[in-house]
Amino acid sequence: MPRTRRKRAIVLLSGGMDSTTTLYIAKKRGYRCHCLIFDYGQRHRREIKSAARIARLTKSDFKVLRIKLPWGGSSLLEKGQKIPAGRMKRRVIPSTYVPARNIIFLSFSLSFAESVGAEAIFIGANVLDYSGYPDCRPSFLRAFERMAKRGTKRGVAGGRISIEAPLLRKTKKEIIELGCKLKVPYMLTWSCYRGLKRPCGSCDACLLREKGFREAGLEDWAIR
């Protein structure tokens, strides 16, 4: 009998909690995963090292794609900008927003997906416990999928590359509880916006992570 082709997916892997959980979900769904890790000039490389280590651990193919965003526009790119500390309800998008980052990342992922025949792109976007980024919202992801349908060879030929965001409407607590069931190695992930030896504990990413583990009644071994 001919061998059944295993379905493929591109996974945007940053090395953080959400993208790592998303990778484990994709693998649980039976996808052969190709991880795309971006080195886009961020202030530190801790998350890149974490992402590569996690990809190897899960025996996933991975590429580290180096791109430059020389115009800056974010405190994650410009060392002269201060990363905000202390999470609060903001009426403006915080300085940690990188202009059009998910549009850029998903565009590269879409090209990668077409080249390897992947049916899906997985992204760890979240609309509940997040910092208000516009490119993490459901309307954006739906619009991108429609664009992919109209702007790719696969799409105009009647095929589909779906944009999968399985954590989109989950709280950090729910993400961690799900990840624990999937045996996600959270101790290997890196969330902090600063590239210190230990997480700072005060940036949005650290505070959201701490909140999730606290509400799940678990200890975060990664920051011990």
Shape call: globular
Spans of at least 5 consecutive residues with low confidence: none
CATH architecture: 3-Layer(aba) Sandwich
Element-by-element helix/strand order:
EHEHEHEHHEHH
Strands in their spatial order, largest beta sheet: 3-2-1-4-5
Straight-line distance between termini: 52 Å
The biggest beta sheet reads: 5 strands, parallel
Structural class: alpha/beta
- CATH class wording: Alpha Beta
Describe this structure in words.
This protein has 224 residues and is an alpha/beta fold. The protein is 36% helix and 11% strand. Helix 6 (172-181) crosses helix 7. The longest helix has 16 residues, at 101-116. The mean pLDDT is 90.
Briefly, what is this?
With 224 residues, the protein is α/β, with parallel strands linked by helices.
Key words describing this protein structure:
224 residues, alpha/beta, Rossmann fold, globular
Write the layout of secondary structure elements.
Layout: E1 8-12, H1 17-28, E2 32-39, H2 46-57, E3 61-66, H3 101-116, E4 120-122, H4 138-151, H5 153-156, E5 162-164, H6 172-181, H7 204-216
Parallel strand pairs: 1-2, 1-4, 2-3, 4-5
Helix pairs in contact: 1-6, 6-7
